[in-house]
Task: structure prediction
Amino acid sequence: MNHWLFGQINEFAEATPWLHGPAQAYANYGVVLFGVLLVAGWWVARRSGQVAGVAAAIAAGGATLLAVAVNQPIVHAVHEARPYTTLPNILVLANRSTDPSFPSDHATMAGAAAVGLWIVNRRLGIIAAAAAVLMAFTRVYIAAHFPADVVAGLLLGAIVALGTWLLLRRPLTWAVEAVATTRLRPVLVDVRRPRLP
Result:
């Protein structure tokens, strides 16, 4: 099923040469969009003045980095070959890498950012979720990963982000409340809308 679905997407890629450039650009550099979305999450939380929102924004950024770190030992333990090293006669748009394929680092990062931002703000979460699905698709489209690689990455990232928030919600919220009483308050809350104690 995994190889069959990859084949279907690869055939679609062969039939859509006009999409090659945008897909390659997003698959390789779309991580920048997630960085922008995470900063936007902090900005939205800061303007709301909600302690939990600011804590969630901090957790979202941290969980995104943590998810990629957690993924690395899994990638090396599974050590799955990339599609272009195992399948002959496929269209390859990816920059060839010797790194293993499962789970996808890009999808893991995207899944973590999407769930983290969903906790911060539903609108940002929806945008990030759509961006994450697109990231997963383009990674398969350029033949950097099999579909299972990106699905596993999205799930792993989501689990890490949710687990991070559940574990750190109280201590992180307490820390934000404590820091909000110092000179760093403007970093955490829009002083024009003071709602933090």
